[in-house]
Each structure stands twice: as structure tokens, then as C-alpha cells.
Amino acid sequence: MFRLPFKKRVPPPPPPMIPPGVRAYAIGDVHGRADLLDALLDDVFADHARRAPAALRLVFLGDLIDRGPASREVVERVRDLVASDDRVSCITGNHEEVFLLALDGDVEALGMFLRIGGDTTLASYGIVDEIYGAGSDAELIDIMRARVPADHVDFLAGLGDRIEIGGYLCVHAGVRPGVPLDAQQPADLRWIRQPFLDHRGAFGKFIIHGHTPTGEVDVQPNRIGIDTGAAYGGKLTAIGLESMQRWFLSVG
């Protein structure tokens, strides 16, 4: 009797590891929801305190601003955390990119900024009537430069695009499949969607990202998305990582 040759099942690769003695948390897109951010930070720090002692790493995945009502407060909160503790990091998102381009005088970027929720960011800096009452785009940009504190601009302009922790790579949007991780371009790290979201192969590191809102955490074999729609009345989510373990904390 003819038999097909036995094909040995290849086991899946082990989950990525966090370095021994380290516990990491990553927080998804806040989008001006200072209320949710405060509640989630309370939960993160309480969760860390009730577990066994470990060194804390905390990463914000970008898009601190726009859409929600308290972008200024969020920027201040995250800036202060990053400044006070070198174990806290923040990645730039596409919304921060557009905001900075507008502040730099890019009129096209200003238009995009207002279309993607930047009006609420300006309102948090006390710019309301001037958004559509300014005599020109250049006048509005001058008002923005006068009202947005220089230390906020410097903080946002100094953010990087990636944070590696053990077998994980934290980015805002994702990575381009087929491109080595050390050759990824900022445009992809901040903006990419489908080529990344549809890819099922390995990326070289397990990717933790935000950018694409989903109703619940998006867990895939090669990535986890934690933008759970805080900007749209959904939850704000953090992922906890330790050794080979993962868990989630959400508020909202």
C-alpha cells in the first residue's frame, strides 16, 4: 500500500522574550484623552507594584494629540514622565509629524492637521476662534507658534521612531515587509497600514504598534495592535510584557 511520506510538524517559534528582570508596558494612541491616560497610568503603576520586583520600562506609541479634548495636558504629562525617568520613552506618531510640519510653516500640512483632528489640539492651547478667523494660513501658523510652548515643540521634535526591548520592536504604525528593520523609513514607521497589517510572515522582531484603531486588541502571530479607539469613544489600552508573558490593561 502506497503511503505518503511522513512530514514532521514544525513547532511554532517560541514567544519573544523580554530581558530578565525587566517588565515593560506600552501604551497605545492617547489622542488627547488625558482622562483615560491618567486612569490607565494609575492601573499600570498599580499592576507593576503588585507583581514581583522588576525594572520598569514604559513606552508611549505616539499620537498623543488630536481628536480628544486635552492634547496639551497629554503632551505635558508624557513630557514630564520622559524627563523624570530614563526608563520612560515616547515614539512619534503621524499626528505629531503633521503638527510639527504645520508649526514649521508647511501650509499643506496645516490643512491636513485641521482635517485629522488638529482643531481640538489647537483648542487645548487656547486657539479657537482664530482657527477659521485668521486672515490667512500664515497668520494662523504665527498664532500657533506664539501659543504652543517651545518646550512642547522641542519635546515632540525630539521623539524617535522605534524602541527595542528584547524580542519586541515598538513602533507607531508598523514596518514594511521585506525591508530589514534597521533600514525602515520614518514614513512607514509612522504611516503604514495594509502592507504591514496583511503580512503574516516574521518581521525579525515581534511588533507592538498603534495607529490603526480596532475595537479590541489586535493579536496576530507576528504583531499586536493596541490602538483600541480612545479617540472615538473607545478604550485606551496598555500591553504588559515580562519574560514570555503578555497581558493587557484597558480603561474607558
From TrEMBL:
It comes from the Bacteria. GO terms for cellular component: cytoplasm. GO terms for molecular function: bis(5'-nucleosyl)-tetraphosphatase (symmetrical) activity; phosphatase activity. Pfam families: Metallophos. Residues 24-215 form the Calcineurin-like phosphoesterase domain. GO terms for biological process: RNA decapping. Signal peptide: none annotated. This is Serine/threonine protein phosphatase. It comes from Sphingomonas panacis. The lineage of its organism: Bacteria, Pseudomonadati, Pseudomonadota, Alphaproteobacteria, Sphingomonadales.
